[in-house]
Design a protein that fits this description.
With 337 residues, the chain is an alpha+beta fold. 16% of the residues lie in helices and 45% in strands. The chain has four helices and 21 strands. It starts with a helix and ends in a 12-residue tail after the last strand.
Length: 337
């Protein structure tokens, strides 16, 4: 009997050892791939020809917000997109200007310009021409921009993935490399490597980490906002259309007033919404009455678009996790209609 038991136990022990070896190999491969994804960055070799002061200006307009990177090159400004992307047409325009892209094999994972998960092994690295602009305001308040050709500044080795949306995007992986100044009167943004003068910090940002999110090319940034004396962390989403502050529909009982029906559009569908035009909002050390939208989407439950909210100059510094305002901006109670 003992001999029979030994004959039975021996194959079982061998099978157990094989399973341990197999699962160990799988674990090593999985953690190896995960570690590689964590180490892979974006725009690691990017550098600018003239880094001092303002690197460039980009006229900003539209809903969703679009920026003119250079004449004929229009990109969506989207902190909700993890990786910057570019269309074949825009690559051809750059090549026509003398900037030919280098094709690379490089795994990139994360949300695209419409909020959908995207996986690709293709990346383009290309130089991008940047400019400054003169601007004029007509009697109706419309702003027009005129390029200053001699202001050409070249941004070298910018990383893009192929667009899966039909339009090009400056994602958070790119935007977090700069201090972004919003020039309200000029209807433009300016990019800096150092914080521009004349601003002071008024709100802190935070970053959300998880094993899954850490594989993405860019971080997810949040700001604490109090609406009707209830605080939540709001995702900084410059791709949020029309609304400046969006809360889940289930939170609409915060507002004691009658709410107005509205619709919020994303890049792929529309969602019913309710607006409170006189909600009490506090961000940082500024409080005031403002509009908030209650709406359910398939994205983050609480979102904030500073470009829709602030009708004044400000600086968005994602890398140092802060928003800055002019010292003379005494209130923070405005929103874009």
């Amino acid at each position: 009997l003992r001999s029979l038991q030994r004959r039975i136990d021996t194959p079982m022990k061998k099978n157990k050892s094989k399973l341990i070896i197999i699962w160990s190999i799988i674990a090593i491969v999985v953690f190896g791939i995960y570690g590689t994804m964590l180490m892979l960055g974006s725009h690691e070799s990017m550098h600018v020809e003239r880094p001092e002061g303002s690197i460039c200006s980009m006229p900003i307009d539209g809903n969703p917000l679009m920026v003119t990177v250079a004449p004929g090159l229009v990109f969506k400004l989207d902190t909700g997109a993890d990786a910057s992307s570019i269309t074949e047409d825009d690559l051809a325009k750059l090549e026509g200007l003398g900037y030919k892209a280098e094709h690379k094999i490089y795994p990139v994972f994360g949300r695209n310009g419409v909020g959908r998960m995207n996986w690709t092994f293709t990346r383009y690295q290309v130089d991008v021409p940047l400019y400054d602009y003169n601007y004029e305001v007509d009697s109706l308040g419309n702003v027009s921009h005129e390029i200053i050709p001699e202001s050409l500044n070249v941004l070298h080795d910018v990383d893009f993935v192929p667009s899966s949306t039909g339009f090009s995007v400056l994602g958070v992986d790119f935007l977090q490399k700069f201090k972004i100044e919003y020039k309200f009167d000029e209807k433009a943004i300016a990019l800096y490597l150092d914080t521009p003068e004349g601003y002071e910090q008024f709100a802190d940002l935070s970053v959300s980490h998880s094993p899954f999110k850490d594989m993405w090319q860019g971080n997810r940034y949040y700001v604490t906002v109090s609406v009707q004396d209830v605080k939540n962390d709001y995702f900084i989403d410059t791709g949020l259309q029309k609304a400046s502050l969006r809360l889940p529909m289930s939170e609409s009982n915060r507002s004691p007033k009658d709410l107005v029906s509205d619709t919020i559009y994303t890049m792929v569908r529309k969602h019913p919404a309710l607006i409170d035009n006189e909600a009490w909002v506090c961000i940082g050390d500024r409080c005031g009455s403002s509009s908030v939208w209650y709406c359910d989407t398939n994205e983050e439950p609480y979102t904030f678009n500073p470009f829709n909210y602030m009708l004044q100059d400000f600086v968005l510094d994602l890398d140092n996790k802060k928003i800055l305002l002019r010292p003379y901006s005494s209130t923070f109670s405005y929103h874009r209609k």
